[in-house]
Amino acid sequence: MTFHDQVIKIIPKLRVQAFALTRNRAAAEDLVQDAICNALAAQHSFIPGTNFSAWIHRILRNRFISDLRKRRDTTDIEDVPAATFASSATHEDTLALKDLSLALTHLPPDQREALIMVVIHGMSYEDLAEATNCAVGTAKSRVFRARRQLEAWMSGDLPSNDKLRIKVQALRESLKNNANSQDIESFF
Description:
Blueprint: H1 3-22, H2 25-41, H3 52-73, H4 91-106, H5 109-120, H6 125-132, H7 136-155, H8 162-179
Helix pairs in contact: 1-2, 1-3, 2-3, 5-7, 6-7
């Protein structure tokens, strides 16, 4: 019996073993196909007269183990449920996020856009400059000013810049007025 004849004859048994390992028909078929490809590529290493069945079943099993290791090593962090990394936000955290969200709405549009693109989306300053059709220095400046302004609003420290001081005071008044009404919920 030729090598190829032995491969064809053992395919049903390989399918049974693959299904037992994977517990999924499609994955089992893929595993059998990969194992047969490996066996065909390594047919020169098979010694005629030895146990062909044991040899090819060992290839299938090794291929299954290799595939498991590859999947384990290359699991993308985005595939892991967020609950694995996250914990429930405290009431203070929720309020701080609401305050931050409201403060973001008060930033000038160009600064808000720059901050979100760099901080949230992870865009480089060069990409931001290209996307907003401005110089790299301008992009960096917008992000810096947005951060500085948010920090001032969120920390309660009033900056020495009079224009910024007026904006901070107006935002604080807005927050005080909205804190006692239901209107604040409309921002979120």
